[in-house]
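From the pipeline queue, job 12 of 40. The input is one protein chain; the requested action is below.

Action: predict structure.
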Amino acid sequence: MTETPRPAGGPQDPAPYPAPPAYSPYALFEEQTPAAPPGHRAERPGGRRPAALIAACALVAALVGGGSAALVGELTNGRHDTSQGTPVQNVSTKGTGVAAVAGAVSPSVVEIKAATSSGQSTGSGVIITADGEVITNNHVVAGSDTVQVALSDGTTKTAKVVGTDPGKDLALIKIQGAKGLKAAALGDSGKVRVGDQVVAIGSPEGLTGTVTSGIVSALNRDVTVSKEQGRGQQQRGVPQWPFEFGGNRYNGDTGSSKTTYKALQTDASLNPGNSGGALINMNGQIIGINSAMYAAGSGGGSGDSAGSVGLGFAIPVDTVKADLAKLRAGGSDS
């Protein structure tokens, strides 16, 4: 619409102006009601404005996001209701964290002492059934004559080896006469991401029920371990199980018969004796079986120092679950 030019003379000019137009393109909240057809009952003036205003707010909320949605809630309900928020699954954000995971899973982790012709190996294991099935590493129980299991309550039980799979460095043992044990929940290692917080529980250096924590540092690391019996290198009376990673050997010679698997890497502290223990997510689920660790000075099998430097490896729990049927049937030598 063409605007009538304003006569010169400034604001004090008394010259009259034309009447304003019947509508304004900038009237955001005013709504012009068209003339009702004959016989139509006219609405009460202003009757549609609240609905129009709410619709406008809803449109803004949809464009801006959840914060504006709360504003719409206040406009329509007179209050801010947060009861429909998405629950957070990671227990560490609920003020419970590592302590809660340790309290929940520690009863499902055991210490294992396996006597062989060459000595005794000490490792850890994870209870997976109430009647005493325990998952551990093959290298912990390989060639054992007798196996003793120390439960979290301090009692010691005899166990027998049900099946081993040296190709995956896994073994299944069964605690004799067990019932009512607390079985661990097996998670999904396929959902694990780098940076996820984790907890490790085991018996490093024979210290039963030791808890450490860290993160998942990497996925799908190629770790090579020995398939032979008696490959542990003794240090302070505890076997330092040899493994290869990145073309180097650690903790001794892996020998000629060996196997490689894809491992989860973690910086949670692992030491000799953690082998076969649990790597746990913050929902209290087992995501891996701890199997190898790098000790300072262990490269090439030499060096005087030992201890975790934050480079540990675990067999993904999905590998464990896929191997359970074979282990229960006696395992495999492949």
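Job complete. Confidence is low (pLDDT under 50) at residues 23-32, 53-95, 233-238, 300-305.
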